Structures are given as structure tokens and as C-alpha cells.
């Protein structure tokens, strides 16, 4: 595997770095503060040049050895790539994980891994480009269109479930449900709204009782798991009745009109419909700046880890066929990290998805239940867990093996 070769080359370069520093300080008399710093600079530059040629010989083996190309383009670009990776690690990722109270050892290991991954992809994308290096990964980051079987013929979508976890949402739950009902009724979509009351301490349950009496499409259950967003969503996913399900926030931050666009994509044959607030046509309104920065960094980390173009994995507002929910179970997350677990598992296990622009607006009443400082290590655990599944499970949970048989059934039925 190319990335494994890359890591081995990095290990060799690090060994060269350590050896040179030791040799200059212990045996060549580089023992003043200035000379020690000079030894570090020399050793770092030597290890960078060594790693460049190691990668050029053993990892990216294509291309020509034109001296002008190597020394005046590829080598300087490689310095920029390695420097950018180190900068992101030291000045962005390390302080962020420290602020999130992630254990120092884990922070260091994640930082080293993140730096290596960033360096790998930057090097592949900008130093050893696909036009000159046939073994470049760049084509895999821009895959050709994959034709999936038309699930709409195999399993048509007849109805939709909306799962809404709610904890102390007396100020918004009624308006949220009313807006969804108005929107779906206009489109003549058969639906149910299932609210999971996460043991609210305010009047949320009283309001839900009243709403269920007024509409036969609304029902609620009390979360039978311990309190927590992930547990509440899992409770809802175990109790919805219809062919597809969308997870919607109770605070009214998700636009009900986007549910219609999701539904149409699922009805056209996709397994999942994902939204992005950060593509053309997407919009965020009153997003707290510090949350926006953390959101963008977290999604960038996930994109790099999994080689995705999709840039809004952490948002809960997504729609899935019932078969997908069954295929990604059992779910592990207790908290908001469930918003990452479900879509990443669906992607890694081969379910098809479409990405649509969506609108998000900050809640008008109540307070957010997401506590970023408490969630850092939990998000990291889920991301690493699914990354290990992707690379070590040998496709045991993958569904693409079923695609050809499914497609043949369609042809036979025609």
C-alpha cells in the first residue's frame, strides 16, 4: 500500500534526523545554543531531502529525472507540503485538541498521524502529480461516475419517517413539527413524525401529548436509554415505521424544504441523501464563529482521513433508506458523535449517496445541547474506529458485493 510505504520512508527520514543531530552535538562539538539550533536545521533539511528521494524512488516511481524539474520544482514544493503539514499540526490541531481536553499522549499520536496524512495527500496532489506519476492517488480522489443499481425499482419509497430527538425543547418543538407538516402535506408525501422525548424536564412532553391528539401523523416515545443525543436518536431509529428516515433537529435549525429534496433523491434510487451547508447553494445563518471554525477543521480532518469530497459529515440532518440503518447497525455512539458514525459507516460500507445544498439557521429559543469540550475525544474515537474498519476489515461489511446481483435481478424482471 502506497501510504504504508510513505510511512516507512518517513520513519527512515526521522531516523536520519535523530542520527545527524546526535552525531553533530555529541561528536562534532555543536554544543552551544546557536550550534545546537544549527544542528537541528541541518538535520531537518537533510532528513527532508532524504525523504524526498526515498519517496521519489520507492513510492512515486513514475516520471522523469529531469534535474530542473526535480530540484527547482518538485523539491521546493515538497518543502512547502511538509511545512504546511507541520504548521497545521503545531498551530491548529494541537491547540484545538488541547482545548477539547484530549489526553496529551493521544493528542501527540493524532497530531503525528494527521501531519503524515496531510503531507501524504499534499505531496501526492501537488508534488508528484498524476500526469507524470502513474501511481499517483489523484485519480482516486476524482473517481469516475459509479453506476449503482436502481433501488427505486427494487425497493420503492412509499413513505417517510421524521425522527426528532428532543430534550427541553418546549420553546421550539411545536413550531418545528408544524413547519414540517405544512411542507410535507403540500407535496402529498405519506409520512410520520416520531419525536423521542429525551427525559425532558420542562413542558416538552405535555406539548407532545397535545400534538399527538391533534394529528394522527405525530407520535412520541420516551427515550428508554440513558439521556443523551445519540441514545435518543438510536431509540428513534429502532422505532420508526416507514421506508426511509430523516433525522431532524428539534430546534428548527433544519429547513423543512430540504426534506423534500432529500426525499426525491432517495426516491430516485440513492441509499442516502446528505446535505452540505458549505457548497454552492448552501447557507448558514447566525452560526457562532468559534463553532464554525471547529466544524470546518473537524470536517477537513475527516475528509483527509477518508479521501472524501463531501465536506459536512458532522451535520445530523441526513436521510437514509431503512436498509441503510439496518446495514450500519449496531450503533455505538451515545452522544453527538452519532452524527458522524452513521454517514461514515454508510460511506465506508458502500451505500450510494447524493449531496445537496441545505440551509441551517441558529435556534431562536432554548440552548444548544452540544458541548464541544466534552465531545472531542468521542468524535475522534468514532472516526478512528470507522477508519480502522475501512482499512482492516477487508470489506466484511461492504454492500457493493451485492450490487451486481441486485442489478441482474432488475434486468431479469424487465
Main-sheet strand order equals: 3-2-1-4-7-5-8
| Number of separate strands | 9
User: Runs with pLDDT <50, length 5+?
Assistant: 135-149, 401-414
CATH topology of the domain at 151-379: Spore Coat Polysaccharide Biosynthesis Protein SpsA, Chain A
Q: CATH superfamily name of the domain at 151-379?
A: Spore Coat Polysaccharide Biosynthesis Protein SpsA, Chain A
Summarize this structure briefly.
The chain has 414 residues and is of the alpha/beta class.
Task: Please give a structural write-up.
The protein has 15 helices and nine strands. It has 414 residues and is of the alpha/beta class. Among the domains are: 1-59; 151-379, Spore Coat Polysaccharide Biosynthesis Protein SpsA, Chain A (Alpha-Beta Complex), CATH 3.90.550. The longest helix is centred in the N-terminal third of the chain and has 33 residues, at 67-99.
Keywords:
single chain, 56% helix, disordered C terminus, 414 residues, elongated, Spore Coat Polysaccharide Biosynthesis Protein SpsA, Chain A, seven-stranded mixed β-sheet, two-stranded parallel sheet, alpha/beta
Amino acid at each position: 500500500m502506497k501510504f504504508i510505504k510513505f510511512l516507512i520512508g518517513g520513519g527512515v527520514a526521522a531516523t536520519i534526523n535523530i542520527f545527524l543531530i546526535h552525531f553533530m552535538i555529541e561528536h562534532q562539538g555543536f554544543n552551544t545554543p546557536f550550534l545546537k539550533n544549527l544542528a537541528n536545521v541541518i538535520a531537518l533539511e537533510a532528513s527532508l531531502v532524504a525523504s524526498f528521494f526515498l519517496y521519489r524512488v520507492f513510492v512515486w516511481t513514475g516520471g522523469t529525472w529531469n534535474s530542473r524539474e526535480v530540484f527547482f520544482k518538485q523539491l521546493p514544493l515538497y518543502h512547502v507540503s511538509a511545512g504546511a503539514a507541520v504548521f497545521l499540526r503545531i498551530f491548529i490541531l494541537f491547540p484545538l485538541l488541547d482545548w477539547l481536553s484530549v489526553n496529551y499522549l493521544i493528542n501527540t499520536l493524532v497530531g503525528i498521524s494527521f501531519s503524515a496524512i496531510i503531507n501524504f495527500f499534499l505531496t501526492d496532489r501537488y508534488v508528484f502529480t498524476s500526469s507524470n506519476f502513474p501511481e499517483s492517488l489523484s485519480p482516486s480522489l476524482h473517481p469516475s461516475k459509479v453506476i449503482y443499481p436502481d433501488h427505486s425499482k427494487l425497493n420503492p419509497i412509499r413513505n417517510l419517517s421524521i425522527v426528532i430527538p428532543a430534550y427541553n425543547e418546549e420553546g421550539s418543538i411545536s413550531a418545528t413539527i408544524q413547519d414540517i407538516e405544512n411542507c410535507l402535506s403540500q407535496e402529498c408525501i405519506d409520512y410520520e413524525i416520531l419525536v423521542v422525548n429525551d427525559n425532558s424536564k420542562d413542558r416538552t412532553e405535555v406539548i407532545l401529548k397535545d400534538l399527538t391528539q391533534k394529528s394522527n401523523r405525530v407520535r412520541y416515545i420516551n427515550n428508554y436509554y440513558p439521556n443523551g443525543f445519540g441514545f435518543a436518536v438510536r431509540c428513534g431509529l429502532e422505532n420508526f415505521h416507514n421506508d426511509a428516515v430523516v433525522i431532524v433537529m428539534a430546534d428548527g435549525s433544519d429547513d423543512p424544504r430540504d426534506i423534500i429534496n432529500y426525499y426525491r433523491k432517495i426516491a430516485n434510487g440513492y441509499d442516502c441523501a446528505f446535505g452540505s451547508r458549505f457548497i454552492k447553494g448552501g447557507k448558514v445563518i447566525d452560526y457562532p464563529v468559534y463553532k464554525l471554525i471547529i466544524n470546518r477543521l473537524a470536517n477537513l480532518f475527516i475528509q483527509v482521513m477518508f479521501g472524501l469530497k463531501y465536506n459536512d459529515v458532522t451535520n445530523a440532518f441526513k436521510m437514509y433508506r431503512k436498509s441503510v440503518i439496518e446495514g450500519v447497525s449496531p450503533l455505538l455512539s451515545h452522544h453527538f458523535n452519532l452524527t458522524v458514525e452513521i454517514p461514515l459507516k454508510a460511506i465506508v460500507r458502500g451505500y450510494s449517496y447524493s449531496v445537496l445544498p441545505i440551509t441551517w439557521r441558529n435556534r431562536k429559543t432554548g440552548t444548544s445541547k452540544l458541548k464541544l469540550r466534552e465531545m472531542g475525544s468521542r468524535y475522534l474515537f468514532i472516526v478512528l474506529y470507522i477508519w480502522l474498519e475501512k482499512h482492516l476489515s477487508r470489506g466484511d461489511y461492504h454492500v457493493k458485493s451485492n450490487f451486481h446481483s441486485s442489478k441482474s435481478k432488475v434486468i431479469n424482471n424487465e
